[in-house]
Specification:
Elements: E1 12-19, E2 25-32, E3 38-39, E4 74-77, E5 82-85, E6 88-89, H1 90-96, H2 99-108, H3 114-126, H4 132-139, H5 147-161
Antiparallel strand pairs: 1-2, 2-3, 4-5, 5-6
Length: 170
């Protein structure tokens, strides 16, 4: 099984030498794999001033220099205003597909036909019921509680109400 980021068949790698602080240099691979011709951030750790040093780390607060990885699910080109899911422009999906049709597309790789959509909708609908205690938990938060804290707590609590859900392959 190939792991994203590993060099596999048909992918290219090029060894490059980099000079860093203190005039030291190291070699790292530049990959054209899942990420477009990029150095893995963990490779920067090879650049150390001493053996005790943790090495260089990367910091990119605006993701202005973060390599986007190739994905079969999503394609984004922010400069051109392009967002596609499984090849479909987001505008088309928003205009012509329902939320459940788009969810099916993302998970299964194709838009559902009517029979698949009916089955998928029934499957989703029958699994939307929540235990009454989850509702009580959500009502117990202060009126001004932060929504992310409420979401985090509620999702965490779901696992205590539905212990069978840990069987993710079922």
């Amino acid at each position: 099984m190939q792991v994203p980021g590993d060099i596999g068949e048909g992918e290219e790698s090029d060894e490059q030498e980099h000079v860093v602080g203190g005039g030291q240099s190291h070699r790292s691979s530049v990959h054209d794999s899942y990420c477009r011709w990029a150095i893995r951030a963990t490779d920067l750790q090879q650049s150390k001033v001493s053996k005790e040093d943790v090495g260089l780390t990367s910091y990119d607060p605006s993701y202005g220099n973060t390599a986007n990885c190739r994905s079969a699910v999503c394609y984004i080109d922010g400069d051109k205003g392009i967002l596609r899911y499984r090849g479909y422009p987001i505008e088309q999906l928003a205009r012509e597909s329902s939320f459940l049709e788009t969810a099916y597309l993302i998970i299964y790789g194709e838009l559902p036909n009517q029979r698949q959509l009916d089955e998928w909708t029934n499957n989703i609908t029958t699994h939307t019921m929540l235990h009454e205690n989850i509702k009580q938990l959500m009502e117990s938060f202060r009126y001004d509680a932060h929504p992310m804290g409420m979401l985090l707590s509620t999702v965490g609590a779901l696992s205590t109400f539905y212990p069978d859900a840990k069987e993710v392959s079922n």
